[in-house]
Amino acid sequence: MIMETQILEIDERSLALSKKIILSGGAVAFPTETVYGLGANAFDDNAVKNIFAIKGRPSDNPLIVHVHSGYNLSSLVSYIPEYTKLLSKAFLPGPLTMVYRSCNKVSPAVSCGLDTLAVRIPSHKGAQQFLKYLDLPIAAPSANISKHVSPVTARHVYDDLKGRIEVILDGGKCEGGIESTVLDCTGDIPCVLRSGLVTADMIAQVVGECHEYVMKDGEKVRSPGMKYKHYSPNCQTILFEYSDRAKAFAEYKELKSQGKRAVIMCDNSVYEELKPQDVLNLGKDEREMAANLYDKLREGERIADIIVAVAPLKQDGVMVGVMNRMRKAFG
Ligand code: AMP
Ligand code: MG
Q1: Angle, nearest 10°, between helix axes 200-207 and 82-91?
Q2: Per-residue pLDDT, 226
Q3: How far apart are CA 294 and CA 121, in angstroms?
Q4: Contacting residues for 272 by C-beta, under 8 A, at least 6 apart
Q5: CATH code assigned at 77
Q6: Peptide bond preceding 137: is omega within 30 degrees of 0, i.e. cis?
Q7: Three-state DSSP class for 81?
Q8: Can you state the percent helix, strand and coil of the chain, rounding each to 5?
Q9: Is ligand 1 within 6 A of the CB of residue 323?
Q10: What is the pLDDT, as a whole number, of residue 224?
Q11: Same domain, yes or no: 145 and 39
């Protein structure tokens, strides 16, 4: 079904319209501090299935349920470990998703049949307004076509989903820029399944210990989303390690001499060193790089045939999450 898509400021009128859409089983895009989400009523089986259809999302890649900061978590999950209370105090609302044992109150389509439920309380003011107005758990993946770059502006959502949804709530550019940290909290020690702005070190500082999930050969993946190609711009891409930055620059110049629209993606220090004419500068530090990555990937696919990326020197802390996305985006 093709429909007209509106981008609306968040106010009483757009919230009332969003509520009407959600209660009738539809989906609404809304801002968060990480990326834009595509939300539906987590209690409504058809509405949740519709989210997968709109995005073209594989049906075994579970969704995160979003709730406002006053929502009663124990109505959604069967067990809340003590350490998650410490983590909630330290990091919520914010870009940390915690995976709990589910008590099967939401549609089974949310977790794709897993017995766990991922829950997140976003800090973005507009997200909180939307979630409070609805007072429902909202199942929401990123508001992009599956495998494309996640959206960090309302315009990005529009570019991917126009004609497929009625309303995009506009909350400006997302400050965080990469998806939330996903933390498995079903064991005695929490385990990072997907890295993000809340790092394993930050979690360990609060609760003493934190594991980082590495998939072993032949093992069933614990966070199904991690096995898919992701975040890919619609143009050619090539990634060089930091130590190969001179090779990257030579490749870029060679491509230009062949008449290709080539552009270099790098951090500010590499830009200062190489000074390429065509650049997608990710910025000076890890926070800037996280915030800029998806915007720059989407700019790249608009202006270039090929993005030649150089990995930054620093790859720890928040850069674990940024590099994870860069490697997936660049195949
Ligand atoms: P997205 O909303 O597109 O950022 O994707 C949600 C991410 O959360 C994916 O990587 C999923 O695999 C992960 N996720 C959601 N629910 C669960 C769950 N119950 N257990 C493990 N990972 C989950
Ligand atoms: Mg996504």
Answers
A1: 120
A2: 63
A3: 22
A4: none
A5: 3.90.870.10
A6: no
A7: coil
A8: 35, 20, 45
A9: no
A10: 67
A11: yes
Q: Is the pLDDT of residue 216 over 80?
A: no
Which percentage of the chain shows pLDDT scores above 90? Answer: 93
133 with 251, same domain: the answer is no
Quick one: which of 297, 306, 35 has its CA closest to 177?
35
pLDDT band at residue 218 under the 50/70/90 scheme: low
Structure token pair of residue 76: 């959604």
Q: Which residue has the tokens 């990123």?
A: 142
For residue 257, give its domain range: 236-329
What's the whole-number mean pLDDT along residues 135-147?
98
Distance 261 CA to ligand 1 centre (A): 36
Closest C-alpha to 150, from 248, 256, 253, 36: 36
**Number of structural domains found in the chain:** 2
Q: For residue 175, give Cα distances in angstroms to 35, 197, 301.
A: 8, 11, 21
Residue 217, in any domain of the structure? no
The half-sphere exposure of 23 on its side-chain side, counting CA atoms within 13 A, is: 9
Question: Both 199 and 252 in a single domain?
Answer: no
The contacts of residue 53 (CB under 8 Å, 6+ apart) are: none
Same domain assignment for residues 207 and 240: no
Cα angle for residues 132, 136, 137 (degrees, 5° grid): 110
- Nearest CA-CA partner of 5 in 128, 147, 155: 155
Pocket of ligand 1 contains residue 148 by CB under 6 Å: no
| Number of CB atoms found within 10 A of residue 246's CB | 12
Same domain, 186 and 38: yes
Cα 99 to ligand 1 centroid, rounded to whole Å: 9
Look at residue 30 and give its three-state secondary structure: strand
* Residues in a beta bridge with 240: 310
The ligand placed nearest to the CA atom of residue 228 is: 1
Confidence category of residue 228, pLDDT binned at 50, 70, 90: low
